[in-house]
Design a protein that fits this description.
This protein is 36% helix and 18% strand. By secondary structure, the chain is of the alpha+beta class. It binds 3,4-dihydroxyphenylalanine (DAH). The site of 3,4-dihydroxyphenylalanine has 11 residues, from strand 6 and strand 7.
Length: 314
């Protein structure tokens, strides 16, 4: 079969070569010469086509539909993928907070002006709104620029827990979006984790203890922590929370991990919670940064790059 195909291919080459001879044929005979060659070539092509079809069908192993099933045959070897490093780390973050007693609510990927700003005590037209480089859809929706967009919903939804003598303890991980100039430390799409805790006696000391415990559990070692004054319309006072980079991770200096503070009375009020009776603290920070420090990564763009070399490391 194969040698027949080879012969036909050879003949095809010879016919093609004959076309060049047309310049030696007297002009009046050229037409007939061409027609004859074309016919000859078509014959070879048809034969070649038939031979190739026959060969392909002969190579396909027929399936015997009446054969009994063979359950003990080995399964085909499938190539296994791995979880994206951020997915793995979000699972770890969520696991730590769950063990501390927090409920987990995933943050939305499309929200609105009210949850992004108004419910968080950003006055209309306040310049702090511009600090969030927010995307907007033509219908006026907002892909959230921070997970704080979830605060109002969660506070309102869990208000009855307070009235029943309990507390609100919820953590909200999710994907956020900002109209950033992308570079090694800025991405347009990244992940944050938000937390709220409300009770009759919540205070900053509890918050710092909780955050220390979270970071020490995540990095598996004792850490030095520090706060410095910050500004967020939805907390009063507002703080920035820093950790000293662990030497074991080959890093030095202080790194700002999140923003936090006591929830502003207006935010509680808007969610129907009486700020004279209950107090709360909230915090929110980037997950990408958390993971970058853990693995010593210097470029945030790797996470969204779909580079297999990078992803296979995890
Ligand atoms: N949402 C803020 C940001 O993305 C971070 C933040 C600050 C969250 C203070 C909070 C908070 O919950 O209390 O910059």
């Amino acid at each position: 079969m194969t040698s027949n195909i080879e012969q036909l291919k050879q003949s095809l080459k010879q016919v093609n070569a004959k076309y060049a001879g047309i310049k030696n044929v007297p002009p009046t005979e050229r037409k007939a010469f061409g027609v004859k060659l074309n016919r000859e070539k078509q014959k070879i092509l048809d034969a070649l086509d038939q031979a190739l079809t026959a060969q392909t069908s002969a190579e396909v192993e027929p399936i015997d539909l009446t054969a009994p099933a063979a359950p003990n045959q080995p399964l085909p070897q499938l190539r296994r993928g791995t979880k994206h490093p951020l997915t793995t780390e979000i699972d770890r973050v969520v696991d730590i907070y769950s063990r501390m007693g927090f409920q987990i609510v995933e943050s939305r990927q499309l929200d609105d002006e009210f949850h992004m700003f108004d419910s968080l005590n950003f006055p209309p037209g306040h310049p702090a709104r511009d600090g969030y480089d927010t995307f907007r859809t033509s219908e006026g929706f907002i892909p959230p620029a921070h997970t704080s967009t979830m605060q109002h919903r969660v506070l309102k939804g869990h208000r009855s827990d307070l009235e029943n003598g309990g507390q609100i303890a919820v953590v909200m991980p999710g994907r956020v979006f900002r109209n950033e100039d992308v570079d090694a430390t800025h991405e347009h799409t990244f992940y944050q984790c938000e937390g709220v805790f409300v009770s009759a006696g919540a205070n900053l000391g509890q918050m710092l203890g909780l955050l220390r415990q979270f970071f020490e559990t995540y990095y598996g070692q004792k850490l030095n922590i520090r706060t410095q004054p910050g500004y967020f319309p939805f907390t009063e006072p507002s703080l920035e929370f820093l950790i000293e980079k662990p030497a074991t991770l080959g890093a030095t200096g202080w790194l700002e991990m999140l923003g936090c503070g006591m929830i502003h009375p207006n935010v509680l009020k808007m969610a129907g919670i009486n700020p004279d009776k209950y107090r709360g603290f909230a915090w929110g920070g980037g997950i990408d940064r958390l993971v970058m420090l853990k693995y010593g990564l210097s470029d945030v763009r790797y996470f969204e790059s779909a580079k297999l070399d990078f992803l296979k490391e995890f």
